Amino acid sequence: MFEERSAKKRFLSAPPSIPTVIAAVLEPVISALCLLVCLHLYRQPLEGLSMGLITTVAVLTFPGLNRFGRNPVATAIDILISWYGVLFVLWMLGFAVGKLDALNHDMLLAWAISTPVCLWLCTQAGTLWFRHQASKPEARRRAVIAGANNLGLRVAEMLTQRAVPPHECLGFFDDREPARLPPDAHVIGRLEAMPDFIDKHGVKDVFVALPLTSQPRIMNLMASLQNTTASLHFVPDVFGVNIIQGRLQDIGGIPVVGLTVTPFTGVNGLVKRTSDIVLATLILILIAPVLLLIALGVRLSSPGPVIFRQHRTGLDGEIIKVYKFRSMRTMDNGPVVKQATKDDPRVTKFGAFLRRTSLDELPQFVNVLQGRMSIVGPRPHAVAHNEHYSKVVKAYMARHKVRPGITGWAQVNGLRGETDTLDKMARRVEFDLEYLRNWSLGLDLLIIVRTVKLMIFDRGAY
């Protein structure tokens, strides 16, 4: 029993690939080295402030992302967004502790420019080296795929495009009749012929991409391949569901495939919450006079409270209270909530201005400090809307795996304001799920910048 559990743990704790390990340390090392060089060139002493800056940069940039093999332009954009997101956090920390003027500004500018350039050059050099290593005939691993279906074709495409480790896909094995097989799939034979083919042709990797409904065939195939020297890889057909932060986990020695998992766990959760607290605090300090003026305008525009508290659905589906400046004469918060429409008679003249510029959302920075919301995330909908759309929009409730946001990826992509059709809501949900799949601190900062632009120029909300 002990040996079996140890084997399972060895399987689940397989080491990351060499490019992933190199990428994890490349960004913090490059950023720290560039800072050291700039400090030396501008004759800045390595005292407590400088060493603290180096340590902070290393922490914020570790682990680095694996960008090897990507398009050079896309890599450059990704590096710039990520790096200047780090600089923005450093600037906020320096502003908060009053140390912005303690270092030479020319040195900081040289460091801010040299670091992404050096990181991009190192990434491109690493890509060329890995591709050179992969081009060697002895480096290529022969592979076959069990299942000439859509999933199997995706695996074959992945093997063709993947540089590390390099593979040579020899073809497919499938028991179906030729008429039912994809015309562009090179089918070698039936599943029963796989063991002999593997031994004769030196196959190193076998990818089993059979549908889950074929469990007896999968078990028989796995048993027949146990006596071969090839590495076996089972590819579960989970692409029929919306995968969010999919990952393989070890829970008490049991392999578990996470399909819909929040991205904000561990270090990511700490980074997200810290950035929310720092940003929300600074923003509330800066906009305090604006809040007072808006509160006065709401009070003079129509009778009623200045702040409207509405029940919304928050993290993990819990009901939260969200604050807004009141923009309507009525305050719907019951089982039926009608969305605001163009020329809605319930909206006051001053409220129309607030909604058009999104200034009515400013009190939600208090919700961020309370931990109910985040600055960036899926917009919270009224409880009544959730009960309706969760029944008609696929994966609608998956957007509640994170705290709702004041602004979001959907809002900066044209889906701001009324969702008067089911298609608009479905598109908004798809953008929300895309945000969860691809979250990074750089993406949050990009959304914030685009939101400020929309507040000035967009007329899509009412």
Report what the structure shows.
Its EC number is 2.7.8.31. Belongs to the bacterial sugar transferase family. The chain has 462 residues and is α/β, with parallel strands linked by helices. The chain is built from 14 helices and eleven strands. The strands form four sheets. The chain has a five-stranded parallel beta sheet, with helices on both faces. It has a two-stranded antiparallel sheet with strand order 6-7. A two-stranded antiparallel ribbon has the order 8-9. Strand 10 (374-376), helix 12 and strand 11 (405-407) form a beta-alpha-beta unit. The longest helix has 36 residues, at 266-301. The radius of gyration is 27 Å and the shape is flat.
Write the layout of secondary structure elements.
Elements: H1 2-12, H2 18-41, H3 48-61, H4 72-97, H5 105-135, E1 141-146, H6 150-161, E2 167-173, E3 187-189, H7 194-201, E4 205-208, H8 215-225, E5 231-234, E6 247-251, E7 254-258, H9 266-301, E8 307-313, E9 319-325, H10 349-357, H11 364-370, E10 374-376, H12 383-389, E11 405-407, H13 422-437, H14 441-457
Parallel strand pairs: 1-2, 1-4, 2-3, 4-5, 10-11
Antiparallel strand pairs: 6-7, 8-9
Helix pairs in contact: 2-3, 2-5, 4-5, 4-9, 4-14, 9-11
* pLDDT < 50 runs, ≥5 residues: 1-14
Strand fraction equals 5-15%
Return the string of H and E elements.
Answer: HHHHHEHEEHEHEEEHEEHHEHEHH
Measure the end-to-end span: 64 Å
Number of strands: 11
The geometry reads as flat
- What's the main sheet like? 5 strands, parallel
Helix content: 40-55%
List the total number of helices.
14
Transmembrane segments: 21-42, 48-65, 77-97, 109-130, 277-298
Enzyme class: transferase
Main location: membrane
Membrane topology: Multi-pass membrane protein
